[in-house]
Amino acid sequence: MKKRLSIGFISEFSPEDRSFWSGIPYTAYNLLKRHHSVEWINPEISRLFIRMLKARKGLALLVGGNYDWTHALALSRYLGKRLTQRLSGQEFDLLLATAASTSLAFLDTNIPIVYLSDTTFGLINNYYGKYSNLSRQNADEGNLIEQRALEKASAVVLASEWARRSVVDDYKISPSKAHVVHFAPNIERLPEAKDIRYRRGDSMNLLFVGIDWNRKGGDIAIKTYYILKKRYPNCRLRIVGGSPKERLPDRGIEVHGLLDKAKPEDMEKLLSLYLDTDFFLLPTQAEAAGIVFAEASAFGVPSFTFDTGGVRSYVEDNVNGFVLPKDADETAFAERIISVYDSPSCYERLRKSTRLAFETKFSAERWEKSLQEIFESVLENTPTNDPIPDGDNTN
Fold first, then answer.
1. 361 contacts: CB under 8 Å, gap ≥ 6
2. Residues 6+ apart with CB under 8 A from 34
3. What is the homologous superfamily of the domain 193-362 according to CATH?
């Protein structure tokens, strides 16, 4: 039986907030609590300090630039000092830090650290819009923070091979220290395999889930739908999260808005949409990982998306969907969907293999097992002369 550990959970926002970082800290925190004693180490950031950093960003935008205050050395030093004070005298077996390079860079502790992230600063700089057009100094600070955090961690858990390559190649971290563990869905009540519809229904139902309409490729999804609608008059597109700027009169397009997973009625709506979906359509322009692909796979719904960022760690061609090249257009997406839908045997096979991909790569049980193995390896390799507690904590 695995040993119950005492884990300090480092996150700059409450891990009980399902809206932060696609609910990844929420999922990690609550899964770990099933077998371990887990405590959130709240840095309690001063609101005045944050306002000062945001004001600097505002000034940068006024002169045509940009400023990423979340990777500012001033904030990193501040968080490092706050967390060092919070951890003083604490006896944790290890620390799990989620997307917290800024918190880790100047943290002073002998407690072993497992750092979980879906990207590196080097990858997101000029990849996501909010990290574009940064000053040289701002970018240098971001890379310094990332480097220090990666070096400080005893193990680094990445959401994709794309991110792992950056850790090893860009930041020269030992390959043995960097691990790929796929994110599990941010949905607790998932269907059993036997409850999934694997055969075609009377109409084609498409699902789009994404808040950032432009980055997630919302317009391409709409155009793809219109092409499919000509071939399948009963085709429907359900949109969750963001929405087009202009109202669309087409009755086949359903805009459900933002569904809050913390609200039972919204969660029920999302579950019903996934259960009644044939294809998950997300032509995303930039994506570090995409937890929604894992969620779609749990419902046996194949994903159709672009080859960008860490997507290929979540969508494998002809296994749980298809990844199209970045220069593909709506016609290419429609043709790929048609090739599957028009063959009942291909459709059924793809839906079954999609569900199997979830069970073998994206399930919560698989995530827990992988993290537990990493935790055990870290503790086994922690030098005995460090003041690491014996872990005999059963409260």
1. 182, 294, 297
2. 368
3. Glycogen Phosphorylase B; (3.40.50.2000)
